[in-house]
Amino acid sequence: VATCGTTVRENGTYFVNPGYPNQHDGTGSCQITLLKSQPDVCQFRLDFDQMVLMGPEPINNMCNNDQFIVSGGSPVPTICGMNNANHMYIDAGEGITSPIIISVVTSGPSFMRNWKIKTTQIPCASTNKGKLT
């Protein structure tokens, strides 16, 4: 289990909100850095066991308050809102590459948030790789 400011190399690590399993009502940024455990890892799969952030604003559906942001791999759209039981794949490239940073940014009015995200490293030759479009 890892929370804000942690660097992770271990496969199967969970990224959780501060004070987990309690909900979080803070403002700021919480991020972890994912490093490959082996050079033959090409993807990270993020499973949102729990992911409750403030949803998008209703007119343009923009994540103006809370945001889940991935940086350092192939571009991934910013998401927010309720994403329990969803997942995403992040292309990490082949060989030793830059780290992947996953961040949860929280702001705006009081809102009880929580997240528990499982990180799985997928080797390049694995049949479990996701198709990236």
TrEMBL record:
InterPro entries xref list: CUB_dom, Sperma_CUB_dom_sf
Annotated SUPFAM superfamilies: Spermadhesin, CUB domain
Disulfide bonds: 63-80
Residues of the CUB domain: 4-122
Keywords: Disulfide bond
Descriptive protein name: CUB domain-containing protein
Origin species: Ignelater luminosus (Cucubano)
